[in-house]
Design goal:
The chain is α/β, with parallel strands linked by helices. It has 6 helices and 5 strands. A 5-stranded parallel sheet has the order 3-2-1-4-5, with helices on both faces. The structure holds 4'-phosphopantetheine (PNS).
């Protein structure tokens, strides 16, 4: 039973995240999507909203025999990973610019907890420039999000702005 943690902010989940989850499902028996609770950041969506959207969009992806769960965590990722008896942390790398930050995190996590491996995965080229940060910026400035996030995410963003 190989279990991986896929950590992140997921504010909001993008098609790039879903692509990584689909690919991760080919490698692991279970993936826990772990949303970081970060009291220092003002998020667009609450943790509950992010969890709800993830649960909805996961129905639309190819999971094979992999069990995909959603959770949230606070504190050190490696402490959470050990508590979940995970073997690996999955992170998506889009471009070489991601690599430096990801390498630092992976090596720090390895120092803190040598039993957990970090696995870097590349999303499809179509998503190589997609990030939650840019999605929010484009949305807030009135740009089109089609193809970048699942339609329900775009709808939830529109609803939120209306309120
Ligand atoms: O989606 P993000 O914001 O790129 O995800 C970053 C995340 C959640 C993976 C990272 O911030 C993290 O692991 N935070 C938990 C705190 C921690 O363990 N920090 C030390 C990392 S070396």
């Amino acid at each position: 039973m190989r279990r991986a943690i896929y950590p992140g902010s997921f504010d909001p989940v993008t098609n790039g995240h879903l692509d990584i989850i689909e690919r991760g499902c080919k490698l692991f028996d279970e993936i826990i999507i772990a949303i970081l609770v970060n009291p220092e950041k003002q998020p667009f969506f609450s943790i509950d909203e992010r969890r709800e959207m993830l649960a909805e969009v996961l129905n639309g992806i190819e999971q094979g025999g992999c069990n995909v769960r959603i959770d949230d965590f606070q504190g050190l990722l490696v402490h959470y990973a050990v508590a979940q008896q995970a073997h690996a942390i999955v992170r998506g790398i889009r471009a070489i610019s991601d690599y430096e930050y990801e390498l630092q995190m992976a090596l720090m996590n390895r120092r803190l907890e040598p039993t957990i491996e970090t696995v870097f995965m590349m999303p499809a080229e179509t998503y190589s420039y997609v990030s939650s940060r840019l999605v929010k910026e484009v949305f807030q400035l009135g740009g089109e999000l089609e193809g970048l996030v699942p339609p329900i995410v775009e709808n939830r963003m529109k609803e939120k702005i209306k309120r």
